[in-house]
From TrEMBL:
<dbReference type="Pfam" id="PF04075">
    <property type="entry name" value="F420H2_quin_red"/>
</dbReference>
<dbReference type="GO" id="GO:0070967">
    <property type="term" value="F:coenzyme F420 binding"/>
</dbReference>
<comment type="similarity">
    <text>Belongs to the F420H(2)-dependent quinone reductase family.</text>
</comment>
<dbReference type="InterPro" id="IPR004378">
    <property type="entry name" value="F420H2_quin_Rdtase"/>
</dbReference>
<dbReference type="GO" id="GO:0005886">
    <property type="term" value="C:plasma membrane"/>
</dbReference>
<protein>
    <recommendedName>
        <fullName>Nitroreductase</fullName>
    </recommendedName>
</protein>
<dbReference type="InterPro" id="IPR012349">
    <property type="entry name" value="Split_barrel_FMN-bd"/>
</dbReference>
<dbReference type="GO" id="GO:0016491">
    <property type="term" value="F:oxidoreductase activity"/>
</dbReference>
Length: 160
């Protein structure tokens, strides 16, 4: 099996820079620019660093599986899940921003078994590099379902 480039390789450096640019464009234009990454739809995921307590936002490719959103825990290097994945899974709920400035409160859960396989095939159809990445690592890449979560006032999140 061919291994993915190390997380410090020039390839990953370029990926990180593209993600930062994508996030900046998305945030500045409320998703009018930066709402896709190589043709796949993008959302912004808010999370809090487990060690630092610092608020962070990552642009992620997503699948709209209404009422859920689905993301993939890729780009963590060959042997480790990405930091945002660990941060997200440590949280009861968080928010995502969709194109148009629409914010949703969500709670994460891992997809497993037949649900994971069905979602994985749809995600790969949406963004082919996921399959290539999966072939370069022995790590089972997590599929995360972001389910609607009640907002802080106890009512359901607004879906525009």
């Amino acid at each position: 099996m061919v291994k993915a480039p190390s997380s410090s390789s020039p390839w990953w450096t370029i990926q990180r820079r593209l993600a930062r640019l994508n996030k900046a464009l998305f945030s500045a234009t409320r998703g009018r620019v930066g709402a896709t990454y190589f043709g796949a739809p993008v959302l912004l995921l808010d999370h809090v660093g487990r060690r630092t307590g610092q608020a962070r936002t990552n642009p992620l490719i997503y699948l709209d599986d209404a009422p859920n959103l689905v993301v993939v825990g890729s780009k963590g290097g060959t042997d480790a899940h990405p930091h945002w994945f660990h941060n997200l899974m440590a949280m009861d709920s968080t928010e995502v921003e969709l194109p148009g400035g629409v914010r949703r409160r969500v709670r994460p859960r891992l997809a497993d078994g037949t649900e994971r396989e069905a979602l994985w095939s749809r995600l790969v159809a949406l963004y082919r590099p996921y399959a290539t990445y999966a072939n370069r690592t022995d790590r089972r890449i997590p599929v995360i379902v972001l389910e609607p979560a009640p907002d802080h006032s106890g009512s359901s999140a607004t879906h525009h």
